[in-house]
Amino acid sequence: MITNRKHLVWHITGCILFLALPLFLFPHPPGEKDFIFSKPTQRDFIGNIIMLAFFYINYFLLIPKLYYKQKYILYTIAIITGFLIITLVPSFLTGHNPFSKSMDISLPPGMHPMPGVKPDGFTFIEEIRHHIFLYVTVILFSVLLRVRSRLFKTEIARNNAEILSLKAQINPHFLFNTMNNIYALSVREKASATASSILKLSGLMRYVVTETGHGFVSLDKEISYINDYIELQRMRLDKRVALSYKVSGNITGQQIAPLLMIPFIENAFKHGVNPDEDSSINIHIEITALELKIIVENNKVKVALDPHMKSGHGIENTKSRLQLLYPSRHFLILSEDDNHFRVHLTIHLT
């Protein structure tokens, strides 16, 4: 709340200073006492008010809805429209025809023009050139602030993803179950299965600790992580659980943000497995030259979850990361009915 109040104070202060610019920066005839109420000053005030409104429209609406979603033509049209509004509307509202050949600013007898200001033949472009400069500054400043904010949020999301992944994907419940299974295997089988299980578990932990700190990883490493995770889960599954897992396509030479698919897969095992009911989990990952598709389906069964497994942070965090890392380059549908839950995710890799 304190931070929000500080931001509000800064916004209000900035708006007041911006609206006061016509009183201090824009030229007015020397010796004129009522320049505050003159037509040019009124025009400048109106122009600054419109520019201030357009700054927030661009920051909160145009950049996220058009620019970030690569709708560059619509965004350019919106910027040009804003430019026309700011350059023409203030003049019309103050009774000046911007399409006239020149602006008559004849001075009273005995009053001399300011240096560099023509007493007649003052073109409309010269009249509003400070509006043009301010408009360009406003657009660039709003884009800069928005990009800075987005980079900051992306960094926070990446850091949160690392922490949540450690808690959600390699949580104590999963580790204890896996270690118990490894112990059981070591009793029944003497070496090979035990060594393989330990190798897969160490690979999972190594990947989460060392690889996920990077913004992007190779797709083959991400698929290998999922393979090991599913194999370890398969060890503890009852025979009544029908598990189908398939990866198709070429996984080499592609890059992807880490741990985007595993929350949906883990969710299927978390909510779709009950040894007392017929359970089924279907996972299909398809990779093409341009995109990755993953479909995860599971039956809904009655499951008693530990409190730390009920948060749902993994799915929500993944949706936020997708929006930040793949804006307009991903397609996610979460659907369910009384008996099934389904995830369909498409990511454009290029």
Task: Describe this structure as you would to a colleague.
The chain has 2 domains: 140 residues, no CATH class; 180 residues, Heat Shock Protein 90 (2-Layer Sandwich), CATH 3.30.565. The chain has 11 helices and 7 strands. A 5-stranded mixed sheet has the order 2-4-5-7-6, covered by helices on one side. It has a two-stranded antiparallel ribbon with strand order 1-3. Helix 4 packs antiparallel against helix 6 and helix 6 packs antiparallel against helix 11. The longest helix has 40 residues. The chain is elongated, with a radius of gyration of 31 Å. It starts with a helix and ends with a strand. About 6% of the residues have low confidence.
Low-confidence stretches: 102-121
Strand order of the largest sheet: 2-4-5-7-6
- Summarize the main sheet: 5 strands, mixed
Backbone structural class: alpha+beta
Q: What percentage of the residues does DSSP assign to strands (E)? A: 5-15%
- Tell me the number of helical segments per DSSP (H or I, 4 or more residues long): 11
Give a brief description.
The chain has helices at residues 2-19, 21-24, 39-67, 72-93, 124-127, 129-168, 172-188, 192-211, 219-236, 262-271, 313-325; strands at 217-218, 241-249, 255-256, 279-287, 291-299, 330-336, 340-348.
Key features of this structure:
350 residues, alpha+beta, Heat Shock Protein 90, 5-stranded mixed beta sheet, two-stranded antiparallel ribbon, 11 helices, 7 strands, elongated, Histidine kinase, transmembrane helix, transmembrane, membrane
